[in-house]
Amino acid sequence: MAKAMLFGSIAAGALALAGPAGAQRAAPLPWKEDPFPSRYHAPPAQDMLLKGATILDGAGGRIDDGDVLIRGGKIAMVGKGLANPGVREVDARGGWVTPGVIDVHSHDGTFVLPLTAIDREASDVSETSAPNVADTWIETAVNAQDMGFDRALSAGVTTIQILPGSTPIFAGRSVVVKPVRAPTVWGMKATGNVQGFKMACGENPKSWGADDDNEGPTSRQGVISYMRQAFLDAQRYKRAVEQARAGTGAMPPRDLKLEALAGILAGDIRVNLHCYRAGDIAAVLSIAKEFGFRIGAVHHATEAYKIPGLLRDAGTCAAVWADWWGFKMEAQDAVRAEAPMLERAGVCVMMHSDSAADGQRLNIAAAKAAAAGQRIGIDIPPERMIKWTTSNPARLLGMEKRIGTLAPGYQADVVLWSGNPFSIYSKADLVLIDGAVVRDRSRPPGEPVSDFEIGRAGAGQ
Predict the structure, then answer these.
(1) How many other C-beta atoms can be found within 10 angstroms of the C-beta atom of residue 442?
(2) pLDDT in tens, 327-337
(3) What is the pLDDT of residues 107-122, one digit of tens each?
(4) Based on the structure, what is the number of domains in the chain?
(5) Which domain covers residue 150, as residue numbers?
(6) Is 446 helix (H, G, I), strand (E, B) or coil?
(7) Fewer CB under 10 Å: which end of the chain, C or N?
């Protein structure tokens, strides 16, 4: 009875709430609903003026001996010689100021530190009961106590997208978090981003399907065929939902897997695609074109440098490593200069981690990639390099008007570095999220240290 009432109310399209002028507002499309709302509350902001730093604004600009004024949790002004309006002044001479680092590919909270044998045998990073688990939400598996979050924060990371693993073809929805202390992931969950989703192609899903105990495609062509059929089914489901809401048909029985894929087709859910080889990437880009949706980014993408035109024409970014190579067959043809090569070709490029260790060193990954580019004649200056860890990742998350750039009106997710952020010797001296100092390297932590950190002198420093 309750189910019938629920489907009936959606089919009516109405859940119609009368506005002041008698206007009607339809219920949100089912794939846009969030059953796990955020409980994140920004910490109390601290107004301040950072004076005399080298500023990389994240959008391609650089200011030497510059100032950043933060008020009410947002960037108020960026420039030179700013007058202090009566706020705390921080002497940032010799330091560098950037937007907070954004990691678009993390498994923090699911592939937890320290990793136990149990985690290796039955990890929460992937639901492997079927090749299509599009109905899953990774946030329901995240352990907010993972020390990886603290470590990331101490390295200047202020926003993290946690993705499910890449065993299933359709692996489920992602979650974007701020690495702050909270009892549950929903106390960390960011708002204002586009809902993300994980898909996978290539060796991972085909190898899983080929295992004797599993069902699913056992080859690359089988994976692509499976994707096309799933989107064909989702296309019919989406059409039926839209017709029911328009009053020209019956609402189909609710199907959470088809619902998620319909959201992708509608452009309301953004795909993060695990894919390595050029041919695999090209095949999935063809599926996206066939069904009329856009892939937000290809992750890992070790052969993306071979097909930059395809990515550029599709409006698809590449989330890459600096030097991961040779750990599996489809990673054999990686090159260290991939990021600068893609940048030169006009592709939106960003660094990603896929590792709690690399998640603390994304700026260094960018520096290594840029150095490899320099050796073959591609010069990427720091003001452009910083985009790989700030504004470009923000764009993928649909947050490019809120974070990733130091400009008036943006959230004050800011890092003051002790020196050039692309030097292995530089540290994050001050880390701000929403204008609040959440990490000050000159002071002991204001919160209890994680049990896993006890006895580690200078942990996170």
Answers:
(1) 7
(2) 999 999 999 99
(3) 999 988 777 777 777 7
(4) 1
(5) 2-450
(6) coil
(7) N
